[in-house]
Design brief:
132 residues, alpha/beta, 3-stranded parallel beta sheet, 3 helices
Length: 132
């Protein structure tokens, strides 16, 4: 999740780490587990496969149902699909590539109107990067 902190911890496949949670050094989250938002998992704690952990300090609340585990797997697969579909549009530093911008403009039919403005903004960004 957003603003989660993972300090030398291990997170296995198909897990959900909630927003603002913290996994301290040596902790381990096994496959198909859920660490709730804001949970603080202590050093060297192990969240066993299929468990839901909550709180500060984090502790096991209950086992996940089969339906919940199935949904975790689905969510993980959807995140991978989304990330894969975005890989061509992002470069180091989070800037949209010139080719991606051009493709988006062509698809939207606004290429001629916006190209000069975008090229100007891209030039400004490149100048700022070189200046620093």
């Amino acid at each position: 999740g957003h603003q989660a902190q993972i300090h030398s911890a291990t997170v296995e496949d198909h897990c959900l780490i909630g927003m603002g949670s913290v996994l301290n050094q040596g902790s381990r989250v096994e496959t198909l587990s859920f660490v709730a938002a804001g949970a603080i998992v202590a050093k060297d704690d192990v969240v066993k496969s299929g468990e839901l952990w909550v709180g500060n300090p984090a502790r096991k609340l209950r086992d996940l149902t089969e339906a919940e585990k199935k949904h975790l797997r689905f969510q993980a697969e959807e995140y991978v699909k989304l990330a894969s579909s975005q890989s061509a549009t992002m470069e180091l530093g989070g800037n949209v590539s010139d080719d991606a911008i051009q493709d988006m403009l062509i698809e939207s039919g606004t290429e001629s109107e916006s190209t000069s403005r975008i090229e100007s903004e891209a030039s400004d960004l490149k100048s700022q990067k070189n200046f620093k």
